[in-house]
Amino acid sequence: MSAAKSTDTDNASWESLGNVIRDHRKSRGLTLVDLARDVDLSQPFLSQIENGRARPPLMSLHRIAEALGTTPQAFFETTVDMAQPVVVRAADVHLVDVDAEP
Length: 102
Prior knowledge:
Blueprint: H1 3-27, H2 32-39, H3 43-50, H4 58-67
């Protein structure tokens, strides 16, 4: 994997984490200010975490999870059931010729 693809994937992972934290916070009816106060973080830093622009230290992630009634591991669970294979039939695949001129 190239460095650029690795960085894109890494950024998407942190953005995904932020979205999960935001969803948990909102489902509990908490504002950024409320949660920041509860976990002893600044509201701007918590906002950066939720927007995928900051990476929380493990202890901060633990405090956030605890305040939201969950675990840090729950923030990383995927909604995809890996036990169920995904089947894509050849007839359903649409190929795009990237070398064709518009």
